[in-house]
Amino acid sequence: MNTNQQFGSDRTLSGMPPPRRTRLTPDRRRAQLLQLGRELLATHTLDELSVDDLAERAGISRGLMFHYFKSKQGFQRAVVEAACADFLQRTAPDTALEPVPRVRAVLTAFVDYVLDHRAMYVSLVRGAASADETVRELVDGARDTQAARILAGCAEFGYDDSPMLRTAARAWVVFAEEAVVGWQHPGEDRHRLAAFLERTLMAVLACVEPAEDTLSRT
Amino acid sequence: MNTNQQFGSDRTLSGMPPPRRTRLTPDRRRAQLLQLGRELLATHTLDELSVDDLAERAGISRGLMFHYFKSKQGFQRAVVEAACADFLQRTAPDTALEPVPRVRAVLTAFVDYVLDHRAMYVSLVRGAASADETVRELVDGARDTQAARILAGCAEFGYDDSPMLRTAARAWVVFAEEAVVGWQHPGEDRHRLAAFLERTLMAVLACVEPAEDTLSRT
User: Fold this and answer.
1) Interchain contact B200–A (C-beta under 8 A)
2) What is the ipTM of this complex?
3) Distance from CA of A94 to the nearest CA of B (A)
4) Alpha-carbon distance A163 to B109, whole Å?
5) Does B138 touch chain A (CB under 8 A)?
6) Rounded to an integer, what distance in angstroms lies between the CA atom of residue B105 and that of residue A161?
7) Which residues of B touch A182 (CB under 8 A)?
8) Residue B196: closest CA among B212, B208, B209, B185
9) B113-129 tens-digit pLDDT
């Protein structure tokens, strides 16, 4: 995938000596810095990302960092934006698949992504409570996109759209986050977790009243 | 309940002129300050709680604030601790009730509490992503207590304890938080929301495999 090449995600830059004086195009340099920032989220919170530390690791000047990102806050936002975009791209539904295999593929990709980037993902989820409103909006926006994907699937399945269906989809997204982040099992149990998530998604959606006016409940 | 009296939650202190020079016992003064802090969480994030502002509102000196709470961080932690304790006390299961009415009463209390203290509750949930580890632990601890209550109920219902049951209970707690915080309906729909939560809790628990070794799934 082009995005992966561009972000150099097959090379772990932070595990290598700083690639000093490497000549890169501005776009590739920016992508490299964002990739490095995402890798640092595995061991640092968002607020701990230091521009100085990052400039040194990337072998560029502090001034160049500010040229690309304007401020520490600008860099943090760009890292979160890149991480959310990567996550959403890797968990995108394949519309060529039938609904059930499509949901299954998305949930498998979701479980794999979170477990493979657990520490980074936790930093991001915590970023949702960041004092920076833009960061909160980025993380919340990624959840909204996931919820919107679920709702698009619901429309195909013939569910009536309703405020409660939207509440259910959005709340299930954080349910899934929490379940995967809290999962403490070895790798071979991943398919059990994905299957559990699939069952809970269907079960939660089935709890939504079919129409708004069916209030006849004790 | 004694705790409510002590915390003076029937009086909205922030809506009144500062009770200057009022003579209170140290315990009551401390409780008054914590109550004021919790009320301010309705309009401020945790990090925005200013010791100066609070001392002025309470009509005491900054020095006395520090006498009670040692630091701004100490005050924030004490406010979060008091808010979590209050929340858990108000949503405690009444073991005199049968399981189904007991769950229903807890969920009604939960929905009422969150909707009646929505802004404070959101500040607290965001506090879970606070840079302060103690604050994170307090909020996470309140979620753990809620999950433990669900698991205690499950044991009564005859569910086998398992890592997946624990994952389900914990993830459902954040599902419920998200669903109530995101609920945009007027007051009379509260019972629908509580009933929806009840159905999702039962549905999610039913998604847990009955035993660890039933892995025979494609």
Assistant:
1) yes
2) 0.81
3) 20
4) 22
5) no
6) 29
7) 167, 170-171
8) B185
9) 999 888 888 887 766 55
